[in-house]
Input
Amino acid sequence: MTVYSNTVFHPTFCLLFTKMKIPFFDYKKYCKELPYADLVSETLSSGYLIGGPAISKFEEEIVNYTGIKHCITVGNATDAMEIIFDFLDLPKGSEVIVPAHTMIATASAAVSAGLKVKPIDVNFRYGLLTSKELSNVNLSNVSACMITQLNGICSDMDEIMNLLRSNSVPLVEDSAQGIGSFYKGTHAGGFGVGGCLSFYPAKVLGCLGDGGAIITNNDDLASYAYSVRDHGRGVDLQPLYWGRNSRLDSLNANILLTRLLNIDYYIEKRRRLASLYDNNLSALQDQGVLKLPAKHSVASDNPSTYQNYEVLAEKSSDLMAFLKDKGIGTIRQWGGFSIAHLRNLGFNIDNYPRTLDQFDRMFLLPMNHMLEEEEIIYITQSITEFYGA
Ligand SMILES: Cc1ncc(COP(=O)(O)O)c(C=O)c1O
Output
C-alpha cells in the first residue's frame, strides 16, 4: 500500500503503514543537540582544561539539585564506586550483597577492593532489590550492601536502612542511573555512605563521553575522594593517600552545566512519553503478555525519571526481532547478563531460576527526551500488532 504525502490521513492510520527508523538511542542527534562549538570556545577561552571554575560550579549545582551535601566529580561512575569501597577499607574476602539485576560495574567496584560479591534476586515488580528480598538474606556476616537505584526509581530505603542499621551493614548506592530519582524526598545516593552518578551520554544527564561523580553526605568520604581522584594529593600537592587519576574534564563540566539547566524538561518529556507507552500498552498488560515499568519509587509517591523504560514481555526475543524489522531499536540491559549469569567470573545462573526467568523476558524500549510522541505511537502500534491484539 502506498501512502501519498499530500493525502490527508488520520495520523494513526498513517503510522500504521509508514515504516519509521527509531534507533534505541540516536547518538548522531544527541551530538547535534547543544551548541557544542560555543561550549568548546568558552572552555578554551577560560584556559581551564582540567579543574577550574566549571568543575566547582557543576559540583555546586549538583549539590543544589540533589540536596546531597557533597559532589566530587570523577572520570565515571565505576571509579566513583571504587573510591567509596577504598574509603570503607572493608576486610578482604568479606561478602558484599549486590542485586542480580545491575551492571557488572556495581560488582566489579566491590571486587576491586578485594571483596566477594553475592548477587540476590531482585523484585519482579520493580526490578530492584527491595526490603522484601533483603529481609530473607542473612546479613550477620555481610560487610556491605549495594542497592542499585535502577531505571529512574529508588527502592524502599526506609525499610532497607532499618534492616542494614540493625545489622551494622554499610550501604553503598549504585545510583549511576539515579539523577532526579527520589524516595520520600531524598535523592538517590543520599541514603548510605555514598552514591555515584554516571554522565554517560545516554543517561538523563549525559556529557560527551565518560563522566561521573560521587555524591555523599559523609564529610570524611568527601575529603578522601577530593584527594584520591587527584593522585591522593592534598591542597599543597603533598600526597595524603595512594590515589588515582579520575577527573571530569572542564569541557564536559561546561556541557553538563548547560544540560543541567534543561534537566526538568528532559525528565518531564520522558514522563510524558512513558505515560503514552503506559496508556497504549495497558491492554496488553491486562492480557498478561506485557508488564510495564513501575511509575514510582518503591513504597513512595516520587515519580520515575524513566531513565529506562524496561518491560517484561512474553516471547521477548521474537518481539525484539519483530520490532527490529519495523525499524525500532531495542536492547537488553547489560547485554542480557545479570551478575548471576557471569559464569566466567564464578557465578552459576542455575542457582538463580527467578533471575533467569526475568532476564529471558526483560528488555528496554526506546526512551529519551529526543523521541517524539509519533515515534512512541508507532512503537506501541507495532507491539500491539505483534501480539495480534
Ligand atoms: C547501574 C549502573 N551502574 C554503573 C554504571 C557505570 O557507569 P559509568 O559508565 O559511568 O562507569 C552504569 C552505566 O551504565 C549503570 O547503569
Notes: The longest strand covers residues 142-148. The pocket of pyridoxal-5'-phosphate is lined by residues 76-78, 102-103, 105-106, 148, 174, 176-177, 198, 200, 210, 212 (CB under 6 Å). The domain at 11-32+262-386 is CATH 3.90.1150.10 (Aspartate Aminotransferase, domain 1). Confidence is low (pLDDT under 50) at residues 1-11.
